[in-house]
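Lay summary

Proteins are chains of building blocks that fold into shapes. Our project writes down both the chain and a compact code for its shape. Here are two examples, one after the other.
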Amino acid sequence: MLQGHPWVFRGELQDVPDDLAPGEIVQVADARGRVVGSGYANPESSILVRILTRGEREPDAQWAKERLDAAVTRRRRDLPDVSDLRLVHAEADGLPGLVLEVMGGYAVVSPDTLGAQEVLLPWLLDEIRALGPEGVVLRAVSPSRQHEGLGLELRMLAGDPPKGPVEVHEEGIVYLVDLLGGQKTGHYFDQRQNRLRVGAWSAGRRILDAFAYTGGFALHAARGGASQVTAIDSSSEAIAALTRNAERNSVTIEAREENAFDALRALSQQRERFDLVVLDPPPFARGRSHLPAALRAYKEINLRAMRLLPPGGILCTASCSHAVSEDDFTGAVRAAAADAGFSGRVLGSYGADVDHPVRIEIPETDYLHCLVLVKE
């Protein structure tokens, strides 16, 4: 924490008041009694305090406005021609637990911690409305909320609800996103540049997009001139959204509702071949205790995918698990290559797009690892 990390765990504190209230703004002092920062507390969470300000300054609505203004200014500088994007990336923008995105003209707020919902959001709601969205949607569906003692919520905070799915535009692709329609569909902006890369490699190739979700990679591959695109996801809701997205973009995608682990195993046993395979699974590890199982899962899917590639075939494989470091993930892929007898070059190693900034003092913000290999 003294080196800039905003999380303070209960075990790191010598004295904790018994009557600490959820969402209460508290000061954190060092062993000499010097105040080193202030933040919001949650006695229900293993992270007892999330630091908002350093030194003697106490956080308030004016401070929160300054943080929001700074985040919006950075996005307008870094992505000047992009209208659908992430405006606030929680800790990375100095607003712990709070995510703010623009989708189809609506502001979508996702508070993943109690303090983000009970403290930061009330301070910032009028400022978010002043950005000029058609409405403000509370989309609080992250599983991490259960660790904060919070339930799931999907509702309007301001304005009229959209009459149906909104259109999210990304590099020439249109996604139909139902902001209020369910917990399992939405849109993720972090892979924007990696989807573009896959599209550029797809001309004339046979593509497999496993864990396809609503079709981000598959749509770019189809638009990039792929000879065939197969997309697999276990969620019927995601497959339905993917099918709508394919129709909206006038491309052909074979969408299959299957467990991707089972499908990869079956395709490998059938000796199927694809020229490019994308693996973009949901998080396998929500915490360090899940790391061994997550690494086994990453090794398994990468081993199966490698066996589907002919010489010259490309594997684009990703991890978005906060608890899995880049070294952890690369090690799992390397172990898969050894077992699969796979030899190849690393074409690139990539992270999230710039609207998901990484802070050097907060390793958890560097959560997305995308490794691209070509088989030789």
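And here is the second example, written the same way.
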Amino acid sequence: MSFLDHEYREIITKAVCGKGRKFTQATHHVSPSHRPSSILGCWVINHLYNAKKKSEDTVEVNGSYDINIWYSYNDNTKTEVVTERVTYTDYVPLSVKDDNCLNDDYDVIAKVVQQPNCLECEIASQGNKIVVEVEREFVVQIIGETKVAVRVDPKGYTFDDDDDWGFDITDDELGDVKPDFVDSKDKD
């Protein structure tokens, strides 16, 4: 029952060596061209991001998105849309880590759980800026090489595509088939 008895094989494969998740709320201050009277709408679009391993237990996600705010001004007689490009850096801690990865050549996968979206948009108390609260959430995975030990079948069984899997229809099953199960109106 050891590697020397040839009952086990070591296989080198890629596997998830780390996982993490982070939820972020951020506040942005947008300066429109005119003093806003009221907020008519706010959208967060054009989200772009990339991720890289920063340290043994952290992934760095760098990204950007556009905040579009539709607002009225001049005592609610005119409207305008102001757009501001925002950049961010999120540090996602790895809550699960496998120290058995063989080298430092990792692949980093980051997936958006919650696309950046507007939670709240209001005129600042000074009245010349708009305050926008945005939320976003990521999950990250670190993929690396690791070693897996598998037990070898002592009889040396190998899989053959022509093996009979026993999926033939029996006479009993064939007897249960009802040839007129299709309704006559469906026969066309």
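What can we say about the second shape? The mean pLDDT is 86.
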